[in-house]
Design brief:
The complex is a heterodimer of chains A (about 120) and B (about 110). Chain A has strands at about 5, 10-15, 20, 25, 30-40, 45-50, 60, 65-70, 75-80, 90-95, 105, 110-115. With about 120 residues, chain A is mainly β. In chain B, strand 9 (about 85-95) and strand 10 form a beta hairpin. In chain B, about 35% of the residues are buried. Classes of the chains: A mainly beta (about 120), B mainly beta (about 110). At the A-B interface, strand 5, strand 6 and strand 10 of A face strand 5, strand 9 and strand 10 of B.
């Protein structure tokens, strides 16, 4: 069965520090997709990235970067030089291509960036 | 601007009352979803719809009902059978069902009086 674990419930950092949010997943499918979403205090989930299981290249988008490692079933998210506006709950999610196809969300990691 | 709207932002339910949450999208997406989020937890799927006039139960459908009469609209009714309805409800849509990116509305917070 598919499962997503985000072991860090809450993280606090001081502005300009780098921070990594961990995501570990379980799946029986060989083709699957991983996602990260940001949920600011307003509540709406904002899409950040989608990555398929065949593309293990790391991705960088501004201060955001993602490290996908199939060998450890992890899809970690790093924010470089964090800012107060990065304070939010971050969710990792998994969707399989062949089984169910529904999203499974992790429990989320609450990031607080202090000025 | 394309997007997903949900209304109302806050909703209060009395005991024994059915309430309906609205979700509208103008993204021309075929698939729509309803999720429930409880404090400190992830999202759980209530119902989803792949196409007009078709919908399927998710993981926690008991006490909820939906309809999909138009492509743009996917309202969720929280019935009196749902004994613990207090939660944050999020609607989402994707171009097709499956591992496609889901885009979310701003959510409705339901409180029981």
């Amino acid at each position: 069965a598919q499962k997503v674990t985000q072991a860090q419930t809450e993280i606090s950092v001081v502005e300009k520090e780098d921070v990594t949010l961990d995501c570990v997943y379980e799946t029986r499918d060989t083709t699957y997709y991983l996602f990260w979403y940001k949920q600011p205090p307003s509540g709406e989930l904002v899409f950040l990235i989608r990555r398929n299981s065949f593309d293990e290249q790391n991705e960088i988008s501004g201060r955001y970067s993602w490290n996908f490692q199939k060998s450890t079933s992890s899809f970690n998210f790093t924010i470089t030089a964090s800012q107060v506006v990065d304070s939010a709950v971050y969710f990792c999610a998994l969707s399989e291509s062949n089984y169910g196809q529904n999203f499974v969300f992790g429990p989320g990691t609450r990031l607080s960036v202090l000025p | 601007d394309g997007g997903i709207t949900q209304s109302p932002k806050y909703l209060f339910r009395k005991e024994g009352q059915n309430v309906t949450l609205s979700c509208e999208q103008n993204l021309n997406h075929d698939a729509m979803y309803w999720y429930r989020q409880d404090p400190g937890q992830g999202l759980r799927l209530i119902y989803y719809s792949q196409i007009v006039n078709d919908f399927q139960k998710g993981d926690i459908a008991e006490g909820y009902s939906v309809s999909r009469e138009k492509k743009e609209s996917f309202p969720l009714t929280v019935t009196s059978a749902q004994k613990n309805p207090t939660a944050f409800y999020l609607c989402a849509s994707s171009i097709y069902r499956g591992p496609e990116t889901q885009y979310f509305g701003p959510g409705t917070r339901l409180l029981v009086l």
